[in-house]
Automatic annotation (TrEMBL):
Pfam families: 60KD_IMP
Entry membrane topology: Multi-pass membrane protein
NCBIfam families: yidC_oxa1_cterm
Compartmental location: Cell membrane; Membrane
Organism: Subdoligranulum variabile DSM 15176
Domain of life assignment: Bacteria
Family listed: Belongs to the OXA1/ALB3/YidC family.
GO biological process terms held by the UniProt record: protein insertion into membrane; protein transport
UniProt-recorded name of the protein: Membrane protein insertase, YidC/Oxa1 family
Keywords linked to the UniProt accession: Cell membrane, Chaperone, Membrane, Protein transport, Transmembrane, Transmembrane helix, Transport
Residue ranges annotated for the Membrane insertase YidC/Oxa/ALB C-terminal domain, each copy included: 25-266
Length: 339
């Protein structure tokens, strides 16, 4: 699973730079969250536009699926034709969701392995230091936060394992927020620190409801997709209870930002507005396709002018191309093979 934390390589140094300016781990996580959410904001707008566009083309896609349900190849061909003709991609809205999830895992990696990603200490050195202090366990995540807390309590680390400068940085690393240590893991216990994962869970539910309603995504998602979205959100809520509380702080702030973002994008880029725009574009293309055009073709050696629609014109062009091809290769098919 640690491979999912690869964005922590970028988020960790960002947290360290911000911490050097702010001086508090919790406040740093809040600021880092806001910065990354602002960077992802254009993708959120793109996703809302894609959702509005899909609301127009989804009925057409459903119609194709029903019409060719017994012919998968023809169904795929018609789907591709629809996408190419109208220039839309059903998967366009997935990229923002994927990036948001990867950023979530990136922050999870930072709070699970702060000594590694924020201070640049190798996992092997962390384990060695924990072994000398009697903190080594099979759980690599708890070792990292336990090591920070041990150094805060005056533990001495051999400079050959972790340099004295880094140990001093960790010693001065302020992880306290309202009297609570952001390196603690709340678990499913009714303790004061449990307020953070509880807030994260409540804001997740509110964020999901508002986002689905205001972005128009709720009406587009099938039952299985909705279940998957809930499962994913509940998975991250479970991380809030089982990860250092710094992740709960990030997730809660991220959800609050998402709620505000949903209202802003709805005001500026309402799904209804874009749906009406795409419907008008689709109607214009269909009208243009049905519009009669004058086309000159050759039939039985005579030039004939016909009034045809765009669709009929395309069929005639295809027929003419096939006839030319047949004429071109006629001699090759009829000439006997030379001995």
């Amino acid at each position: 699973m640690q491979i999912l934390y690869f964005l922590a390589i970028l988020i960790g140094p960002l947290v360290k730079v911000l911490y050097n300016l702010i001086g508090n781990y919790a406040a740093t996580m809040i600021v880092a969250t806001l910065i990354l959410k602002l960077l992802l904001f254009p993708l959120a707008i793109h996703q809302q536009k894609s959702t509005a566009k899909m609301s127009v083309f989804q009925p057409l896609m459903n119609e194709i699926q029903q019409k060719y349900k017994n012919n998968p190849e023809k169904q795929q061909e018609e789907m591709m034709k629809l996408q190419q003709e109208h220039g839309f991609n059903p998967m366009a809205g997935c990229l923002p969701m994927l990036l948001t999830m990867l950023v979530l895992f990136g922050f999870l990696g930072v709070v699970y392995y702060p000594v590694h990603y924020i201070f640049g200490v190798s996992d092997a050195a962390v384990r060695q230091a924990c072994e000398t202090l009697g903190l080594a366990t099979a759980n690599a995540t708890t070792m990292q936060t336990s090591l920070i807390q041990a150094i805060h309590n005056g533990a001495v680390i051999d400079p050959s394992i972790i340099s004295a400068d880094v140990v001093n940085e960790i010693k001065n690393f302020n992880t306290v927020f309202f009297g609570m240590d952001m390196c603690d893991i709340p678990g499913f216990n009714l303790t004061p620190i449990a307020i953070f994962p509880i807030i994260a869970a409540v804001t997740m539910i509110l964020s999901y409801i508002f986002t689905q309603k205001l972005s128009g995504m709720g009406s587009q998602m099938q039952g299985s997709m909705k279940v998957m979205m809930w499962v994913m959100n509940l998975m991250f809520v479970s991380f809030c209870f089982n990860a250092p509380v710094g992740f709960s702080l990030y997730y809660g702030v991220s959800n609050l930002f998402q709620i505000g973002q949903s209202f802003v994008t709805y005001k500026i880029y309402s799904p209804e507005k874009f749906k009406a725009q795409y419907e008008a574009e689709l109607a214009a293309k269909r009208a243009e396709k049905k519009k009669k055009k004058t086309m000159t073709i050759e039939e039985n050696g005579q030039t004939v002018t016909k009034e045809v629609t765009g669709g009929e014109a395309n069929k005639l062009r295809l027929e003419l191309a096939r006839k030319r091809e047949a004429e071109l290769y006629k001699d090759e098919r009829t000439t006997p093979l030379q001995k």
